Amino acid sequence: MHSLLRRQINRFFGDASRLPDELKKLIEAIDVTYHQADIDRAMTERSLDIASQEMLAQNQLLAEELKSRQSAESQLMYLTNYDELTGLVNRNLLHDRLKHALANAQRHQHQLVIVTLGLDHFKVINDSLGPSVGNELLRIIADRLSACVRGGDTVARLGGDEFALVLTEQNETYPHDDNRSKEQGSITFYPHLIEILQRILAAVSRPMVLAQQELEVTCSVGVSQYPQDGNDPDTLLMNANAALSSAKQLGRNIYQFYTSDLSTRLNEKLTMQSRLRLALEREEFVLHYQPQVDLRTGHIVGLEALVRWNQPDIGMVSPGHFIGLAEETGLIIPIGAWVIRTACAQCKAWHDQGIGKFRIAVNLSVRQFGQADLLHFVSEVLTQTGLDPQYLEIELTESLVMTDVERSIDILRGLKALGVQLSIDDFGTGYSSLSYLKRFPIDVLKIDQSFVRDIEKSDDAAIVKAIISMAHSLGMHVIAEGVETEAQCKFLRHNQCDEIQGFLFSRGLPKEEVEHLLRKKKQLPHRLLYFSNHARTVLLVDDDVNILSAFKYLLRNDNYHILTAVSGQVGIELLAQHQVDVIVSDQNMSGMSGVEFVHFVKNKYPESVRIMLSGSADLSSVINAVNEGAIYQFMTKPWDDVQLKHHISEAFMHKELADENRRLYLEIQSKQFSIVKDRRQSNGSLP
């Protein structure tokens, strides 16, 4: 019996055994109920215990989840406001801090300076040494920038290799008549600001050792100031970035202050970029073609394709105004592809019309050269247009092929395997490394026009001679670009340059005009060619017109083409216009003396034969000129007519013999050139 029931019976009835039998069944039923209640209570308690444990476990999970969520929110808050790599303020928090700094500067009339900074050539380091080294470099730069500013200033990383600094000028009020400020053009700055900027440049450029290499990284800096350059965060940052772009364009490793014309240029650039994106779709690009002429035959042997932009609003735009922007934005790739396709198709069309067989030269940009499918693209263009590969010449710059020499060699060999011609453009302005140049399968060197333009200067003349000699020894042809005068052409011809290109023969022409020029078979004048058929020409130089008349009368029956000049300067002008074989000059002339004149002629027209006449008792300068080879023959005044005529006749024979020797030399050199070129091609252009 259940203990509780027994106690109740004992309480009311005494001994349970005395209960009547008829109550036993009731007692048993009650007993069962009590036992069942115990079982139910035990089960309930067990359930409550289990539920309690489960609730505790769930509460623990909720607590851990809450903690994790709080940590995530904290991390998210950090990442929202700070750069994960460097720990600096990021663009988001920078904007907020700049807003508060501006409010404070406005309230207290303080100056505020915003500096944006970009590392120079960071991509080269990142690509060559790897991202981990690049990241470590960014952390070092972040620490150095933080050390350059005060506690109240802000250093932020904007992304990539760009940083920004907000310099609060708490001790300076912005200028009215304050003598502490200085004016630099339209830029107002405080004396210590320049010191801070110089300190930043110096701190960034301090050498560091990364990946077991000593690196020295420079930076470019742009500066905008409140209140003169803007009064809100976006404007000030935009203007500082405009100044930063200017610093990079001016050569890097410098700082630039924002000025109003920078904003104008930036807006023009953005407008130009927008128009440039639509130019291809609207077919606004056209090609002009500039002839390349052989100095032996005078014939056009090539055309360089020059892209022009026919912009509806502003007319024809030269490449110098949009090629750089196209490179920067990547638009040069579709533009360059269009140029190659159009030029090859046009060249093939001219060949099919029977106008002539000549090559077409196209320039390859840095981005195009870096494309993985370059060889496939060029092959595809040749196949689609039907142009024989030997008539396509691809022009590359020195700096382009020298960036990654081994890769460049592989690409150049691939292009040569297609059968195209290769040339190095603007040679002499880049690396000019002979050790690498001899490994490249190059067919043509183009002498940069800067050397041709100043070819009268001794240094440039020596450089041009060296380039021609070197190129020929390596089995390469030479083209001089930017040839504008006959004097330049004659110098190049005398020094065995193969071809010229420039305004002397023709500027770049539209398709219709160059086609007309090709059909006319326009050539260089015979007097400018290597060996031209021209009348024997003598130049007489004397400031006495009576003596010139006597000269002409003396030579009237000798079948010479006679030119006369009353001064050395006039003689120089005639030499630029005519091919002169023999020069007879007086020594004593006003202005330029005879010795000065023949020295100039010797340097500029060394193939001419020079005779000097003089009645002066002081012959020391004349003797020196004879010893230096500036004078072939010297005669005193008054002269003997028969003797003078004999010396002139002898000078013509000397000139013609020298011309014949030069002709034979060039023939030998041409054969040697062919042998060297064949050897380079068979050896894959390796030494």
UniProtKB/TrEMBL annotation:
Residues 110-260 form the GGDEF domain. Residues 537-652 form the Response regulatory domain. Residues 269-522 form the EAL domain. The modification 4-aspartylphosphate is found at D586. InterPro entries: Biofilm_reg_signaling (IPR052155), CheY-like_superfamily (IPR011006), EAL_dom (IPR001633), EAL_sf (IPR035919), GGDEF_dom (IPR000160), Nucleotide_cyclase (IPR029787), Rev_trsase/Diguanyl_cyclase (IPR043128), Sig_transdc_resp-reg_receiver (IPR001789). Keywords: Phosphoprotein. It holds the Pfam family GGDEF. PANTHER family: BIOFILM ARCHITECTURE MAINTENANCE PROTEIN MBAA (PTHR44757:SF2), DIGUANYLATE CYCLASE DGCP (PTHR44757). This is EAL domain-containing protein.
